[in-house]
Amino acid sequence: MKEVKAVLFDMDGLIFDTEGLYKACWQYAAEEQDLVITDADYQSFIGVQDVECERRVAKMFGDDIDLERFCQVRNAMFKAEQDKGIPYKLGFDELFAEIKQKGLKCALVTSSPRDKVEHHFAGSDYISQFDVMVTAEGVENGKPAPDCYLMASNQLDIAPANCLVLEDSNNGMRSGLDAGCQAIMIPDLLVPAEDVVPRATSIVESLLEVKPYI
Q: Which InterPro entries does the record match to this protein (predicted)?
């Protein structure tokens, strides 16, 4: 590994235990119109911006789906659940504290919009501690394109090779690796893809196992 000067975090499925909840919401909204989004269908959505996933749903079901109604039902269910509080993934608190103790830069690089970021982190001071935040609104080409991680690296003024990306999805890993970053995968709902495994800096089970790499 090259020297790590910055750690770049994905959010959903990595910092917060949200992917299972997202899947349930997307599937429920489809079922409400007597349609089916399978687990395999949803796996292709992980790490992809919502607007692109919605395009895929519209293409998948064509005239059979009322997309506006679908989004309303999905969003209402997610809001009701997230208002109960979204738990942090194992090891995030400890890893973040270690990063700060070592004086490393850190960034949040997510396919989610800014308002979702603010809701998830409400009640904590984590947002103010990220040196850079890249959200869906600021990126034209979302993951797996490398744009978001290149943007974060540029804003941090740290070369991609000295940035360590942490991701739970294959699309996120592709994004980070294609940007020239080092990247560790902490799988959530997805198993590591064949094209990702040989390129990954490492694949670990939780954020607790990232500490030795920084």
A: HAD-like_sf (IPR036412), HAD-SF_hydro_IA (IPR006439), HAD_2 (IPR041492), HAD_sf (IPR023214), PGP-like_dom2 (IPR023198)
